[in-house]
Design brief:
about 400 residues; alpha/beta; Rossmann fold; six-stranded parallel sheet; about 40% helix
Length: about 400
């Protein structure tokens, strides 16, 4: 099938989980045999490496020009100012189409008329209007990395502060109903969507990099944290450095923490930390890691960086938010830590016990292979519009 993947997020540089997922979707669709075009909508002042985008996407790369959101009426702007003044949580919420540039409509119609796509895969609900402006034969799918309905409330309640786009549940539901199908990134969210919206719902978790190979245990006492600079990752890292890391260092003085990705912003780092910064490839960082940690305190969607670590065969210690969407599939391949005490205990156990790391690594590798097979099957089913038959015993 001819597929147009429309995204406001670039695939490169791959410095955040959403970029990694979008790049993996494009690669997986191509390997599944579809003719895929990437339509990039550069909404934000985010770094985009156009040389790498062109290298990855080749002749299938299109740029759809759009102004930066939001797009509000004067009345809506005044209403938001009042909400900000009185510190209402709703001041952090947007109407879905306030983040949609109407200038995209004629560009998409011209592109469709010229290239005749069978299916359009839309990244993020705030571009959902695309699904209502294309002719009916085109199959439209919205990929939900995150559910944005009342996300601002959950984020504020978790102490993370608002970040990025958020809307109401009613707005999100109405927007998702524009499409023929919706992709959920994990099963709990898929179950919720099936109760809430009319379109078909398919569960497609993060697709593992097909070129990744499991890495041997390097031994040693190095922990690795990988993250973008969003406030949820910053909060998680600060929590670990404050509540967990000093206690691990008291027990194992030479224990070290490597920090990869833009989350390693400028600050005063404690002894035992190594800031790797943004990495073109994380293979070397994972190769040197004895244990990977994900101390996320808040998050939506799927814990993509946890999946990535598991695909390398790395033992992982994570909070409940750090394993969201993975509990059943990777049982035995990661350790859950609900408190700082538990986190300290679990990390110490793995740093000191090579046999335990080896057992977890083998489980992670086996589970990753089965995970990838299921995600590819479901992704293809979403594109062609046919739910896969349940396996028979």
């Amino acid at each position: 099938m001819k597929v147009l993947l429309v995204s406001p997020i670039p695939t490169d540089p791959a410095v955040a989980g959403n970029r990694v997922r979008i790049g993996a979707l494009f690669t997986a669709l191509v390997r599944l045999g579809h003719d895929v075009t990437f339509g990039y909508v550069p909404y934000y002042d985010e770094p985009a490496d156009y040389d790498k985008l062109t290298q990855r996407l080749g002749s299938q790369f299109r740029i759809l020009h759009a102004a930066a959101p939001p797009f509000q009426s004067i009345a809506a702007k005044l209403q938001r100012k009042v909400k900000w003044k009185f510190r209402f949580k709703s001041a952090h919420s947007w109407r879905v189409d306030e983040w949609f540039d109407e200038g995209l409509v004629p560009q998409l119609r011209r592109l469709q008329a010229r290239e005749s796509f069978d299916c359009v895969l839309i990244e993020y609900v705030y571009l959902s209007k695309i699904a209502s402006v294309l002719p009916p034969p085109v199959r439209t799918i919205i990929d939900t990395h995150d559910l944005f309905g009342d996300r601002h409330i959950r984020s504020l309640d978790a102490g993370s502060g608002p970040y990025g786009f958020a809307t109401t549940v009613t707005e999100e539901t109405s927007a998702l109903n524009r499409a023929d199908a919706v992709i959920a990134i994990q099963q709990e969210e898929a179950d919720y969507l099936r109760r809430t919206i009319s379109p078909e719902v398919f569960t497609v978790g993060h697709l593992i990099d097909l070129d990744v190979s499991p890495l041997p245990d390097p031994g040693g006492t190095r922990m690795l944290f990988v993250g973008s600079s969003n406030p949820y990752n910053v909060q998680a890292l600060e929590w670990f450095l404050d509540r967990v890391f000093p206690r691990i260092r008291r027990e194992i003085p030479d224990a070290e923490l490597a920090i990869a990705g833009p989350v390693g912003r400028e600050r005063t780092w404690p002894n035992g930390t190594s800031v790797l910064g943004a990495q073109e490839s994380l293979a070397a960082a994972y190769a040197d890691a004895t244990v990977v940690i994900n101390p996320a305190l808040f998050g939506t969607g799927l814990a993509i960086k946890t999946i990535e670590a598991l695909s390398y065969g790395k033992p992982v210690v994570a909070t409940p938010a750090g394993i969201r969407g993975l509990e059943g599939d990777f049982h035995g391949a990661l350790l859950l830590a609900k408190t700082p005490d538990a986190f300290v205990e679990q990390v110490l156990e793995l740093l000191e016990n090579g046999a335990a790391r080896s057992a977890m690594s083998h489980q992670a590798i086996a589970a990753s292979g089965e995970w990838q097979r299921r995600q590819l099957t479901m992704l293809n089913a979403a594109i062609v519009g046919q739910q896969p038959r349940p396996a028979t015993v």
